[in-house]
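Thread amino acids onto this structure.
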């Protein structure tokens, strides 16, 4: 079999194709037509059209579309949705190393009233009993939504699992694992979270466009958790500005 070193090297770098032949052909045809129109039109509108046409040609040539990627569920997400009986699922796995022992990190998580200290969009979590809690969350549009969750697994200092109750408007499941970090560096906290996006995959895309993707949220929340447990506080924008002002040399 003839080898193509350049092509083989790029296969590990370029994103995988997610468009069929018919979609690529349609995109290429539209791209050529848009470029021809841009040449005749000229000016600012023609320049913008040329950019759009070039993007469509690139889409056709590569067979990859980032919008399709954003709105398409991964195989693991499809399995989660099927198992949970959801229309679709958005899932993320994130981890962070915290310079505190697993016992301390576990105790912090187990006290649900402390969760809003690092979960940015969570306004309040109230314990109902040993396994059930009530959540109040602020959305990116300023509204609040509420639901009850139940702990499904509790292995002290190792793992906590939860899910929303069956009748909840927001359907979500997740696990938090606590593992000793190598080299006595504290605890590796691993979060695995999945939820059913409102309005299905369209809601998933809208969330990403608003910067509210579960992957980004999980990353930011775990970074805040690390700051809370290691320093006792989460720097606010005002605090960061004050630190920057204090670090500036005094004017002569």
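Threaded sequence (252 positions):
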């Amino acid at each position: 079999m003839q080898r193509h070193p350049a092509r083989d090297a790029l296969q590990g770098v370029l994103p995988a194709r997610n468009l069929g032949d018919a979609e690529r052909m349609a995109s290429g045809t539209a791209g050529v037509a848009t470029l021809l129109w841009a040449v005749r039109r000229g000016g600012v509108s023609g320049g913008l059209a040329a950019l759009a046409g070039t993007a469509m040609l690139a889409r056709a040539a590569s067979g990859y579309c980032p919008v399709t990627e954003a709105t398409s569920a991964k195989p693991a997400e499809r399995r989660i949705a099927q198992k949970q009986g959801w229309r679709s699922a958005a899932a993320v796995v994130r981890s962070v190393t915290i310079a505190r022992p697993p016992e301390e990190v576990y105790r912090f998580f187990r006290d649900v009233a402390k969760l809003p200290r690092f979960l940015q969009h969570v306004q309040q979590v109230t314990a109902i009993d040993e396994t059930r809690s009530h959540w109040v969350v602020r959305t990116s549009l300023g509204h609040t939504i509420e639901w009850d969750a139940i702990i499904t697994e509790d292995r002290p200092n190792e793992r906590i699992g939860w899910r929303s109750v069956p009748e909840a408007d927001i359907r979500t499941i997740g696990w938090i694992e606590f593992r000793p970090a190598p080299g006595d560096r504290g605890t590796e906290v691993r979060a695995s979270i999945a939820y059913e996006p409102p309005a299905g995959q369209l809601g998933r895309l809208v969330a990403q466009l608003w910067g509210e993707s579960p992957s980004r949220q999980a990353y930011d929340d775990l970074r805040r958790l690390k700051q809370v447990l290691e320093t006792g506080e989460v720097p606010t924008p005002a605090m960061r500005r004050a630190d920057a002002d204090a670090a500036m040399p005094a004017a002569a």
